[in-house]
Amino acid sequence: MRESALEQLQASSDERAVRSRHAEHFLHVAASNGVALQHGRAERLAVLRRESDNLRAALAHVTSLPDALAATAFARSLWLYWWIEGQGAEHVPWLRELLAAAGADGGSDLDPHDRGPRDPDPQLRLDLLLGLCACTLQQRDLVAARAALDAAEAALTAVDDVPARTVLHIARAIVHASEGDLDGCRRHAEAARTSAASVGWPWAESFGWVMLARAAIGRSDLAEAERWAEAAATLQAEAGDPQSESWARICLAVARRFGSASLEPEAGVARKTLADVKRDEPEVERAWSEGAVLPLDVAVRYALDLAISAQSSST
User: Could you tell me if 300 and 200 lie in one domain?
Assistant: First the structure.
């Protein structure tokens, strides 16, 4: 039915007008729900997920237009949604174009103090840079992510935006963890957690706990990692945010599977699970080490694999 409707639309002389009205409607959907999500309303994630196909269609239409205004509005509303959903990498090229159109360089050599030829609105610049930072992190491009982070922090000096500052601390923690700087990861994770708690943002606060757990795993302090990951998972549950890609559960899985208390009961299940699943182990290991958001089932399988290896080497 959907394909038939699309064919009829393409054959109609009103196609452009219909697509424009469709895009306008879903721009309102993106704005009302995406911005609320950025300010801690985790329940809005379900709305955006439900309208995912419509949002993609609307975005495809507005990015084909010569005027970047609507595309910029989508980017400002949806960057956190893309990050949570693991869709960031696909949006990097046109986010750079939007930054350039706004008078701000979006290249990999982005200068945090270069405000561009038209001195753009600092909140607009900040929102687009947050999007670029989130998306380049999912692209695993740490150089570009650092450049976007530096530029976003420079833009933040002109804007009082606690949620944005919180997200930047989370991003810094991810970058530090990916580079093996566990002290830097811990410092920014604690700052993110504290900042998020001050404005009542459970999702971001839980992410701070997750990165504290990640730093603890890096130090092989698995008891602490489990405490922090459990705190994050509890916060996510209270926020009503059952994410299919939850770093809290990933860290908790790793910590628990390495813990002697829960290793043995899981061994049989782990062997069967791993035998049933075809995995690309190097890719999973690289994704974990670089801080990518893994799907929960992949992360748990990986954690169980580590547990089996640890058990085998000790017997």
Answer: yes
- Express as a percent the part of the chain with pLDDT over 90: 11
| Co-location of 45 and 80 in the same domain | yes
pLDDT digits (tens, 9 = 90+) for 47-71: 888 888 998 888 888 877 777 778 8
Do 62 and 110 share a domain, yes or no?
Answer: no
Q: 213 in a domain, yes or no?
A: yes
Residue 77 near residue 34, CB atoms below 8 Å: yes
The answer to whether 76 touches 128, Cβ cutoff 8 Å, is: yes
What long-range pairs does 175-182 form, CB within 8 A, spacing at least 24?
A: 175/137, 175/142, 175/145, 175/146, 175/149, 175/291, 177/211, 177/214, 177/215, 177/218, 177/291, 178/142, 178/289, 178/290, 178/291, 179/142, 180/218, 182/215, 182/218, 182/219
Which residues span the domain enclosing 130? Answer: 86-159
